[in-house]
Design brief:
The complex is a heterodimer of chains A (about 220) and B (about 190). With about 220 residues, chain A is α+β, with helices and mostly antiparallel strands. Chain A is built from 6 helices and 7 strands. The longest helix of chain A has 27 residues. The chains are: A alpha+beta (about 220), B alpha+beta (about 190).
Amino acid sequence: MSDTCATCTGMCCYDVIVRVTGYDAWRIKQAQALQFEQFLTAGPDEPAGQGAFLLGSERRALYLGKNAANERACTFLMHLPDGFRRCGIYAERPTVCTVYPMTFTNGSVALRADVRCKAANWNMATITYPYWRRNLLEHLFESHVYGIVAERWNETGGKNGGTLPGYFAHVERCFDSIDALRSEIGKESFDDLILHWQQPAAEGDAQGRVADFLNEISSICAR
Amino acid sequence: MIAPVESRVARWLRCPEKTCCSYYTVFITGDDLTRIARTLSVPPWTFTAALPCGPDDFGAFALDTSDRRYRAALVRLQLEEGSKPFCTFLIRASDGAARCGLGAGRPATCRSFPAQLVDGAIQFATEGCTCDWSHVTPDAGDQQLLRAEEQARERYTHFVATWNEYVANLNRPAELAYPDFCRFLLDTYSA
């Protein structure tokens, strides 16, 4: 954690609905030995985003559930003495949480306009830009991958009266294979893939490798 | 039917009740205290407390020149009157299933639960636990973990003795508080 986080009161985990990707959900499920139903809700796809899935005619998205002790808070938020709040799944928290409170503005790392913690806490001259850039690119990449997983469902199961347990089974099956594929590629190569996936094709063969990976995912999830 | 083999950690992790996190007072070492404080960026005196103990108890430290001694333990919270206090780091999934918010960073004594070394052999001490441990057997990893835990305890005993000696030799009326002991640990363990 950075020194900035020492003063954190967890406002980003309060009064917000955390939309997650399928891989976020899969990682949390594995690490915490939970079932999807124990920590996820399937809410309306509003605002519309990647990873929307059909349950009948309704477009839904996956969100983290609310805290049993405080319904304004994320289900995984720890409430410590003296008002400290910390994430209880820090190592496997969703990518949207790892990038908070940064975003890409005109292609550069920047503080979100709607930041809920004190903006003055973030010294934009001294933050570690490569760290934030990598995390933001990973978040965009994961969202894109999850979009493919959801689309494959929408083409088949979702249209035909698909149920939430059915969708969860689809997500689990897809990400079991995607995670195995990632292991096969190796962490270093996968990181390289993430860093280059939005660059023009002229930047080498990275774009081709990204396309191969995404085609493989599409194929896995259609089976 | 043959029962499926399950590791000790997997059995503990999937337990929805985690009575071990309310039944026991979790006494910790300086290694645990400093690691958790640094990981969470939270002062250690917010999530631990000094509980009175006997002079010969493990990790017994002084805050003045009297015979009074204390041990560092994780704070427990009681949400409602009459309800059981539970560890401050316990989180609950939407259906109430309990999980440890510290994950792999939890105290050594929690990481090895319910395994204990008794005369060099591992035993499971499951008092107060509602889990069925009958199909779980210790493995080599548990042995390693417990040995490391022993070494951490020895190290902590040494540092506490240094602190107690410092307190005993104070020439002025002691005005030490628990955060002073915590600061000593943060400083000592960063060396």
